[in-house]
């Protein structure tokens, strides 16, 4: 656990989540204390590595809502980064469907005014679906910074279609969102 400001890194079930430890280490090197939340699918994929990720962050990895009355195990978020964000997650988030801790927290962060950034991991066929563009617009209108990298090319099933997922860009945008928020708060805007 490092840093005085807290980044909630929320990952979904897209292939780049398998390298989320790299993002945690980069964020920590940039001075963030990182709390890692995963969708149930992502947590299932990373199940053997969860103890190591908890040791790396110094916090429990969360994949489920806490029980009513249960104390929160994480410090308050200064910024939220939803990455990788799947097609399903982007659409569910935009529609306010909060059936997972990750999407519930991302939705709540917008309502609380916590700076929130998302980096989708979506292939070209899914990005062409009309709901995707509507969801991106909805999230941006609500205050999220949603990055739109070029859609991933379609590959044969089982092939890595995400070799260039841009963790540095996602973390840089999270830092910029936090700084913009702090500057506005300081100036009274």
TrEMBL record:
- Give the Flavoprotein domain ranges: 9-122
Gene3D superfamilies recorded: Flavin prenyltransferase-like (3.40.50.1950)
Q: What is this protein called?
A: Flavoprotein
Protein species of origin: Streptacidiphilus fuscans
Q: What are the leading ranks of the lineage?
A: Bacteria, Bacillati, Actinomycetota, Actinomycetes, Kitasatosporales
Highest taxon in the source lineage: Bacteria
Q: Which Pfam families match?
A: Flavoprotein (PF02441)
Write out the coiled-coil annotation as residue ranges.
none
GO MF, any single term: catalytic activity
Q: Which InterPro entries match?
A: Flavin_trans-like, Flavoprotein
